[in-house]
Amino acid sequence: MRIAQNVRVPALRYCTLSKFRDFLGKQWLFCDGGTGTVLQSMGLKGGELPETWNLTHPDRIYELYSGYLSAGANIFNTNTFGANRLKYPGDLEDIVRSSVRIAQKARAASGRDDVFIALDIGPTGKLLEPLGDLSFDRAVELFSEVVRFGAEEGADLVLIETMNDTYEAKAAVLAAKENCTLPVCITTTYDENGQLLTGAPVEAVVAMLEGLHVDALGVNCSLGPRQMLPIIERLVQAASVPVIVNPNAGLPRTENGQTVYDVGPEEFAQYMGRIADMGVCVLGGCCGTTPEHIRQTVQTVRAKTFRPPAGRRKTLVTSFSQAVEIGPRPCIIGERINPTGKKKFREALKNNDISYILQQGLQQEDAGADILDVNVGLPEIDEPQMMETVVRRLQGVTGLPLQIDTTNPEALERALRYYNGKALVNSTNGKEEVIREVMPVVAKYGGVLVGLPIDEQGIPETAEGRIRVARKIYDAAREYGIPEEDIVIDGLAMTISSDPAGALTTLETLRRVRDELHGHTILGVSNISFGLPAREVINSFFFAMAIQSGLSLAIINPNNDPMMRAFRASCALLNMDPQCMNFIGAYGSYVAESRRALLSPAAEEAPPVAASEASAHGTGARAAAAAGSASGAMSLQNAVERGMKEAAASATREAISAGRTGLDVINEDLIPALDVVGQGFEKGTLFLPQLLLSAEAAKAAFEVVKETMKGTTQKIKAKVILATVKGDIHDIGKNIVKVMMENYGYEVIDLGKDVAPETIVDTALREDVKLVGLSALMTTTVVNMEDTIRLLRARKPDCKVMVGGAVMTQEYADRIGADFYGKDAMASVRYADSLFA
Amino acid sequence: MTSIQVPEKEIFRYLGYRGVAPDEQVKDLVQQCVSELQARSQLRSVSRVYPLTFPGENELLVGNEQTDCMHIHSANLYKNMKGCEKAAMFAATIGQGVDLLIRRAEASGAMTAAAVYQAAGAAMVEAWCDEVNRNIIGKEKAEGLYARPRFSPGYGDFALEHQHDFFRMLDITRNTAISLSDTLLMSPSKSVTAIIGLSRQQEPCILQGCEECASRKTCAFRR
After folding, report:
1. Which of A208, A513, B17, B114 shows the smallest number of beta carbons within 10 Å?
2. Which residue in chain A is spatially nearest to B23 when comparing CA positions?
3. Which residues of chain A have pLDDT under 70?
4. Distance of alpha carbon A675 from its chain centroid, rounded?
């Protein structure tokens, strides 16, 4: 099997075929047990960094290794769990190298030829962005260093362990793969529900890691063998590579501030025997286990007949929090994140308006999408950069897996690198050139790959021709090491307005991929109706037929009702919706069309949408907005004051169609309404939620006005920069100020959170901004606020600075030299008005 | 534990309501946000009890130097813990769901919902801390020890830098998936660390006593 990697692999002495791979999955293998427990018994103090002992007490580390080797372990970990540049800024290299050297000595002394030195890699202790402050690239860098030192020194494999975040696990595996050719094994830490601490279920973790081509995977730490049983069951079901299980000696308990474990060697070994019977290939221990635990485990398990891993394979795409299986029922891929034929979306891409793109994603999730297509290709923008940004931002707000849809190889590589999970990739086709470009990248990062049955000869007109190209794609994938279940064939929907038999060919292709190739299929469903009227009528009927012909993935607009009806009805009819639960959930309060006309106009405006999805995912505000629409006609001013979003928008539309200009609406209705609410807030008769509801309603009204004023230049009071300072990673306060400032006529340049002083000053200079608003949450980050102000004073002295945030006070603001302290969002608006209005 | 009651009154208080009940629209929104938050929260905690000694005036030593310990210089905490012989340290979080919900609401332009999630998350983590705190009180009472009010790093003159000690001694990142930034911010955002003094002498301490807080005169949230 050829695993293509477009990476440089250093040609060093360790780049030989691994003997470890001859053992793995072919016979029982045993890991070592706890390190901390043993070292503590040798005198390691709590709080003392265990890895320093590689240098200060090499004899004791030797003793640690030898203890496990004589207990019968085959795989023993170097004492490098916490070794990374963050914890050892100075002597990392010595610490890693010495641990491997001591291990080599211990191995030589054991006289055994069936033992392997595992370069042990634990988590950095930092949470990755967007949850924490460690960037993905920095995480890869931190792991890479350790891998290089350890591999050069002669480790036999890399064992990544105790990972509780898929993103960090991915960074570690990539670092290992990119810096050595050693086998890579990884164990992660699950809670009792079978989730990583960051939320990923077993199946999602396994799919992502197998996509990254790890040699073995499994579970360690946190739980004892008994609590791990259900997790192991799921691991063995999901994995096709050998499974590793390293439990703690029971659940931890504290006694006088010390952690103790209660499961003794005999009981532990009994459980490990049971675990071996479940189909696990590699067994060992974690916290609290000792050489005796391992010795008894080896004895118990050795007596059993070894069974190689079964290799059951499913087709899964995953995100940081879920796995979506392709196959059991058709899945909906939301198609709206795509500039093709969408003027507003193109504008958003050009203006770097990421929040518009995120909103498209969230709306589709609410409407019932299972996966989101991401296509940001536009000739005038930097597509790789935009793709990376959108992927990162989307996975910060939604747990839906993504489909990376691009023809730009760099955009594809960056999307797959920074994606936190196993993505769907759209696409390759049967052309040699495209296969060579796409497949190595998918092979490296993992992914389910869409294959278009098109080759050098063009699009085959018959299903037979398409199947032939599909086979070619499967063959190529195998060569690149992409398993066949990770290929999905596109049935190629072509409009029936130019080829009347087009739909028949497509449907037959779907059927034959399912029945003859036992594969999965995908369709851009609405392509079938280009050039025809009433496209949703054709599309929805074609969709139902495609589902019956075996369609696995449908790229559609989930906001389109007829399409979702076709989908839910087909699933119910084809026994893919147990007890019709989804169907009933969506249409339980359905009103037949013939009766709808009899009902009130309000009901007509609100067609029977999928109630279940809408309420399951809808944020409260959306429901509040819906409540607004039900209240009927209302004056614009009233609607804004009461925070009724829909009512405000429709009142604005009415005002404009009655002949009033946008400017009149703003000056006579919107501004006065905002003022009433603003003053109420300042007086303490109205509170933050009402202020914000009104702001949202006003914003909806402004949107309508903007539409009507298209082409005319709009007046803004001033450009303002808002930023949460460096080191601060929570920015809701700043975002509240932003909404208010925008409503009051300011153009806000939102630099986001954790923003370096230089970025703020550079932007202020470039855009000639006269007011900067800074937010800080902690006393520890106010320092960075002070630095920013100092830098602004030096380089942009005509720029005023207002500050706010949880720890900020007038006194603090004065001390760091700010011009104004805004105690809340209204105060910031008033200050800006005093400068610019 | 996967779910906990969140007192609405507290949420309203965090949203700035003083002596007034919110209108129905806001109440509905709060209820929806709370149930969404309940569904997406993962309540986790870790706690350990250590010996406590006072090496000097305003000096505290939690743990012992042979195993692992924290040296504190703090007049507030010294006063708060006077007469105690042990201290319980804990960390508690409601998980990253709240941060996801806030980011989602912001991305949808639903700032009101974002603010409500923020307030509800704050109320929820406090409720969760109360629960963790109550468990510690109950457990230690059986040992004949009475608990003082909890105290968090960053309050009064108990330096925030002690977060490093908390994270090391309780192995917080591994046990609860809370991480600490270089600027001492915790992630998930709704996470709390605190220390509770344990004394043989029973004092009239209440669970959420703020009396010892040096910022009680300026703090808008004091009870």
Report:
1. B17
2. A690
3. 1-18, 256-257, 597-633, 711-713
4. 41
* Residue A727 at interface with chain B, using a CB cutoff of 8 Å: yes
Tokens 């914003």, located at residue: A699
Find the residue in B nearest to A739 (Cα). B111
Phi first, then psi, for residue A793 (nearest 5°) are -60, -40
Torsion angle of the four alpha carbons B166, B167, B170, B173, in this order, in degrees rounded to the nearest 10: 150
Q: pTM for this structure?
A: 0.88
Length reported for chain A: 837
Domains of chain A by range and CATH?
Answer: 20-302 (3.20.20.330), 328-615 (3.20.20.20), 619-708 (1.10.1240.10), 719-836 (3.40.50.280)
pLDDT at position A5 is 46
> What is the CB neighbour count within 10 angstroms for residue A710?
8
Q: Does domain B8-199 have CATH number 3.30.360.10?
A: no
Could you please report the per-residue DSSP string of A276-331?
HHTT--EE---TT--HHHHHHHHHHHHTSPP---------EEE-SS-EEESSSS-E
Residue A3 is predicted with a pLDDT of 44
Whole-angstrom Cα distance, residue A823 to residue A805? 8
Give the Å distances, CA to CA, from A318 to A398, A421, A490: 12, 5, 20
How far the first Cα of chain A sits from its last, in Å, is 69
Are residues B115 and A739 in contact, defined by beta-carbon separation less than 8 angstroms?
no
Query: Quick one: tokens of A576?
Result: 């893919």
Which among A528, A464, A456, A455 is positioned nearest to A492, based on CA atoms?
A528
pLDDT score at A130:
80
Distance to chain A for B206, nearest Cα, Å: 25
Q: How far apart are CA B62 and CA B70, in angstroms?
A: 5
pLDDT at A661: 86
Q: Which residues of A222-231 are buried (b: 16+ CB within 10 A; e: fewer)?
A: bbbbbbbbeb
Q: Parse chain B into domains and list their residue ranges.
A: 8-199
Tell me the two tokens of residue A41.
């018994």
Structure tokens at A366: 């609410």
- What is the number of CB-based contacts under 8 A between chain A and chain B? 198
Which residue bears the tokens 């510690």? B136
Three-state DSSP class for residue A543: helix
d(CA A785, CA A788): 5
Task: Say what the pLDDT of residue A133 is.
Answer: 83
User: How much is the pLDDT for B82?
Assistant: 87
Coil/strand/helix, residue A452 = strand
Euclidean distance between CA atoms A197 and A367, whole angstroms: 28
Distance from A638 to chain B by nearest Cα, in Å?
15
Average pLDDT of adjacent 10-residue blocks, chain B of 223 residues: 82 88 92 94 92 94 87 91 93 94 91 95 96 94 90 91 95 88 91 95 67 54 38
Helices B24-40 and B111-141 sit at what angle, rounded to 10 degrees? 60
Report the residue from A123, A162, A257 with minimal CB separation from B67: A257
CB contact under 8 A, A688 and B18: no
Helices (H) and strands (E) in chain A — how many of each?
Answer: 35, 25
HEC sequence for A323-362: EEECCCCCEEEECCCCCCCCHHHHHHHHCCCHHHHHHHHH
The distance of A476 to chain B (nearest Cα, Å) reads 40
Question: What is the spatial distance between Cα A332 and Cα B123, in angstroms, rounded to a whole number?
Answer: 37
Residue A131 and residue B69: Cβ atoms within 8 Å? no
* Contact call for residues B45 and B125 (beta carbons, < 8 A): no
pLDDT in the model for residue B216: 59
**Residues with Cβ within 8 Å of residue A475, at least 6 apart in sequence:** none
